[in-house]
Amino acid sequence: MRNHSWKNCQLASGICIFIFASNAHAQLSATELDRLIAGDPSNSDAMGWSVDVDGNRAVIGAPKDDDVVNGANTGAAYVFLRNTQTGEWEQEEKLVMQGAAAGDEFGTSVAISGDTIVVGAPQDDATTGSWLHGSAHVFTLDAGSWDSGVELLTDTPDTSETQYANYGISVDIDGDTLVVGVAYDAEQGTASGSSFVFERTGQTWSEVQKLLPGVGADQNFGWSVGIDQTTIIVGAPHWTNSGVGEAYVHTRSGGVWPVNGTQLSPADNLATDNFGWSVAISGDQAVVGARFDDDAINGQDAGSINIFERSSGVWSSGIKLTASNGEANDQFGFDVATNGEAVMVGAIQNGSFNRGSVYLFTDPGSGWAEDDILFPVTNITNVSAIVHFGSGVAVDLGTMVVGARNSDVADGMGFKFGAGAAFAYGVNTTAISSATSANQVVIKAPAGSYLSDVGAYDPESLGTLPPDSSFPLGAVGFQVNGLTPGAAIEVELLYPDSVMISSYYKFSDHWYEFLDDGTTGAVITTGKVTLKLVDGERGDHDSLVNGVIIDPGAPSENQISVELFDDGFEDP
Question: Does the reported pTM lie above 0.90?
Answer without folding.
Answer: no
